[in-house]
Amino acid sequence: MRRAPYVAPVFAFAAAGALFAAPLGYRYGLWNLNGAFALLRSAAVAAAAGALLCLVAGGWALRLRDRRLLVASVAGFVLGAAACAVPWASLRLARGLPAIHDISTDTGNPPEFVALRAARLAAPNGLEYGGRHVAEDQRAAYPDIAPLTYAASPAAARERCLDIARRLGWEIAPAMDPLLVEATDRTLFFGFRDDVAIRITPLAEGRASRIDLRSVSRVGGSDFGANAKRVRRFLAELGRRES
Questions:
Q1: The domain that contains 115 carries what CATH number?
Q2: From 22, 124, 131, 192, which residue has the greatest number of CB atoms within 10 Å?
Q3: End of a domain among 64, 95, 126?
Q4: Is residue 78 located within the same domain as residue 164?
């Protein structure tokens, strides 16, 4: 009976481990996306329960003056509460963002995929842009996303775009058009593949270039703001390198 309270921190640690295992298992093909989300939900509930049990175990530890149990209970509570907070914060973030997964600096004429056309056609989200409602939702949620004018020739601009894409860890697709850069990025935990198309348009008789960027997920209805964040980061890097 004296050892029973030790079950609480073990339970909290196990729940936290399951929370991290859910996306990693999907990334490495151990289960499908539905299975990963089911495990995430179960792990979040278990983590919350584990945190509460650790509070009880901590009180028991104080009563017994059991220092090891107290330390384990505090650690289990912190880990369980943190593990529960991660999916909760993600859901809260998703509720404040539009359920879109395709972000472009040019919503009227988004950059097209050429080298990645087959990959896009094979993906659940497909190749085509979502149309007016996607553009309207993007403008409402991310009004700052816009094309960037780069003071260099298209050839120089393309080299800068390639350099930034490599530095960001994107997988560069084979070149199919001298005014287009295509690449694929992967999210950290789930390893979702998101595709990027960078279109370069000559301006001022080739002395400057307009840069348009499109980032779109292969799976999922909502991207939790990931594509907008990717576009902003790339344009910020490009602007910093120009200045």
A1: 3.30.310.80
A2: 22
A3: 95
A4: no
pLDDT of residue 92: 74
Structural domain range at position 116: 102-242
One-letter-per-residue 3-state SS of the chain: CCCHHHHHHHHHHHHHHHHHHHHHHHHCCCCCHHHHHHHHHHHHHHHHHHHHHHHHHHHHHHHHCCHHHHHHHHHHHHHHHHHHHHHHHHHHHHHCCCCCCEEECCCCCCCCCCCCHHHHHHCCCCCCCCCHHHHHHHHHHCCCCCCEEECCCHHHHHHHHHHHHHHCCCEECCCCCCCEEEEEEECCCCCCEEEEEEEEEEEHHHCEEEEEEEEEECCCCCCCCHHHHHHHHHHHHHHHHHC
**Among residues 80, 95, 110, which one ends one of the domains?**
95
**Among the listed residues 235, 211, 109, the one whose alpha carbon sits nearest the alpha carbon of residue 158:** 211
pLDDT at 141: 94
165 and 227, same domain (yes or no): yes
d(CA 110, CA 143): 16
The low-confidence residues of the chain, meaning pLDDT below 70, are 1-5, 93-94, 241-243
Q: Please report the pLDDT score of residue 210 as a whole number.
A: 97
